[in-house]
Amino acid sequence: MRATQHADGPGCSTSATPGVLAPVTSDELVHGSAAGAARPRAGLAELDEKTLVVRAQEGDVRAFEALALRHQATLYRVAVRVLGDPTDAEDALQEALLDAWRRINRFRGDSAFSTWMYRVVTNRCLDMLRRRRPAVPMDEVGDLPEPAPAPGRSPERTAELDAGMAALRAALQALPDELRLCWVLRELEGLGYTEISEITGAGETAVRGRIHRARTRLAAAMRPWR
Amino acid sequence: MTGAAAGVRFHVGNAVVARVAAQCAHQVPGVLGLRADLAHALLGLAGSVLGPDLVQPATDGVTATVHGDRAEIALTVVTRIGVNCRDLARAVQQEVAAAVTAYTGLAVVVQVTIAEVRLD
Amino acid sequence: MNAGELGEVSREMSGAVDPDAGPTIEVLACGRDAAAVWDRATAGARDEHERDCLHCAAAIADARKLDAVVHRMATEPVQPPPSVMDRVMGAVLAELRPHDVLELDSPHGPALLSRPAAAAVLRHVVDGMDGMRARSCRIEQLGPATGDASRAGPVTVAMTVTARFGVDLASVTARVRQMIIAAGAQALGVAVRRVDIEVVDVFESGLDRGGPR
After folding, report:
1. Is C209 helix (H, G, I), strand (E, B) or coil?
2. A208·C35 Cβ contact <8 A
3. Which of A108, B70, C57, C164 has the fewest CB atoms within 10 Å, counting from its CB?
4. Is the per-residue pLDDT at A99 higher than 80?
5. Where is C102: in which H helix or E strand?
6. Per its UniProt record, what Pfam families does this chain match (chain B) (predicted)?
7. Which chains sit next to A, with 3 or more Cβ pairs under 8 A?
8. Residue A96's domain spans which residues?
9. Are the C-beta atoms of residues C182 and A29 closer than 8 Å to each other?
């Protein structure tokens, strides 16, 4: 729905406004217009994403901060899983958020903002992986790691679960970067193939192939852990 | 430059003028701080993000340049909603100029930039 | 796995092989695409063929076993330390060089106000109105009104807003206009010459997030 009111006035004098409207008090400007009511001002955290994005694009630092707070846990989660290291993930998150601030005007709303943010952090992670080690050819997979030993002090069941998780983590890190990235977005983030394709820039068929290869390799690595 | 207070000639450097200006600006009602003050604690870390070239000491919210018997001062301040920005800028200009002139004898022009208006 | 994908999966269940699933990734001995079988298995779906087929059963067993650990990994709470946001916002603020500014009227020298800061004030004032949310706020400064070039010129404000469904748009936009003019004079110290308000969306109620994404 669109409606436009075009108001054209002679200047800053409030006397030019219709008499039915009460004059604006300075208290109203600071604290909002619900006199005496307990209704809280709509905080930035409650604003819809589109509004926050537009504000951030116009240079509103606090709107960007609200957006960043809303997305940081997701971006960090992806970075931890893709990079396999919390310290590197912190760096990737920090760089990704700064990238997002510097480039937010390039976001045109063709995709969801969350898709765009996934793309920003994904690019940072791939950057870090490229710098971390010389490129590993896609089909050259290292030997699957031995399952990690279960920590002795945990109760048996917990130890078994922890060891399973540790084994999955190790197997995940042994995957080629592109496979791991697509798998994380699909299986841990729950994204659809189309969105993953938008994020990674790979075709949908390639994405499905990568995810399937990742799944079968991880399943093979996890066979000792039932 | 030289000052002639009590017949003693003295020279005032940029850093002295900047320090006096910053201290005075902090006292003006409605000034929450100079821009860099708010980020100051984080600048060391920000330096690793931005690279040292982007985090100059000049960003601490005030710069001053003395030319002969004149000083140009630029201040970047943060205020809060409820303070009239124009009135605040004028007050900072007047009070800083008066303080620097009283202390140094220099003629002063103050540029004020309000970088942020805190809303909470 | 989100609801939309589960929906797709249940549609796939009606046919033996989903023709929309795209090119086959890996053919099982029974002719099924292993990738498609896996997708259905992790969604908890299984058709008649898959119940009886040994090849599919093996793939499904792999999928189920892996999925149990994967599910635990996916639900593991992972939170970044707060220091990251502190560093990011520190860097964002340190990077800000207020070059995008409005002139304030002052007889004592150059007085400038960050344009984004001024816009944030005007949005804040509108956010404080019941049933209104400011979105875009563009402020343009005109040349000095009189022949006196040393005086700062008035500004024009173009704002887009979202309104709660049911508010009287005519009266509320008139009020928005009045609030912006008052805020210009009282909070910013600039004369607002003209206000354009466009209602670009409506939202449902009270504290609901306004508008679709």
Report:
1. coil
2. yes
3. A108
4. yes
5. strand C101-103
6. Asp23 (PF03780)
7. B, C
8. 44-135
9. yes
Q: Are B109 and B70 in contact (CB under 8 A)?
A: yes
For residue C36 the two structure tokens come to 């498609």
How far does Cα A88 stand from its chain's mean position?
A: 16
| Percent of chain B surpassing pLDDT 90 | 60
CB distance A122 to A181 below 8 Å: yes
Q: Min CA distance, C163 vs chain A (Å)?
A: 10
SS3 content of chain C, % helix, strand, coil (to 5): 45, 20, 35
Considering only CA atoms, which of B35, B94, B90, B80 is closest in space to residue B62? B35
Q: How far is B93 from chain A (nearest CA, A)?
A: 24
- Decide if pLDDT at C156 tops 60: yes
> Taking residues A151-175, what's their average pLDDT?
75
Sign of the C-alpha dihedral, residues B78, B47, A58, A73? negative
Which contiguous run of DSSP H or E holds residue C28? Answer: none
Q: At C85, is the pLDDT very low, low, confident or very high (cuts 50, 70, 90)?
A: very high
A84: in domain: yes
Average pLDDT (C118-126) is 96
CATH fold label, B5-118: Alpha-Beta Plaits (3.30.70)
Listed in sequence order, the DSSP H helices in C128-208 are: 169-183
Question: C18 or A112: whose pLDDT is higher?
Answer: A112
Q: Is the pLDDT of residue B5 over 80?
A: no
Any A CB within 8 A of B48 CB: no
Helix (H) or strand (E) holding C89, with range, is helix C83-95
DSSP 8-state symbol, B10: B
**pTM exceeds 0.80 for this model:** no
Q: If you compute the radius of gyration of chain B from its CA atoms, what whole number of angstroms results? A: 16
The residue among C36 and B42 whose pLDDT is bigger is: C36
pLDDT of residue A212: 95
Chain segment A26-83, per-residue pLDDT in tens: 777 777 654 444 444 557 878 899 999 999 999 999 999 999 999 999 999 999 999 9
Quote the pLDDT of residue B10.
74
Kindly state whether residue C208 falls inside one of the protein's structural domains.
Answer: no
Q: Mark whether A157 and A78 lie in a shared domain.
A: no
Point out the domain boundary residue: A135, A150, A181.
Answer: A135
CB < 8 Å to C187, chain A = 26, 29
- CA closest to A28 among chain B residues: B82
Pair A226, A150 in one domain: yes
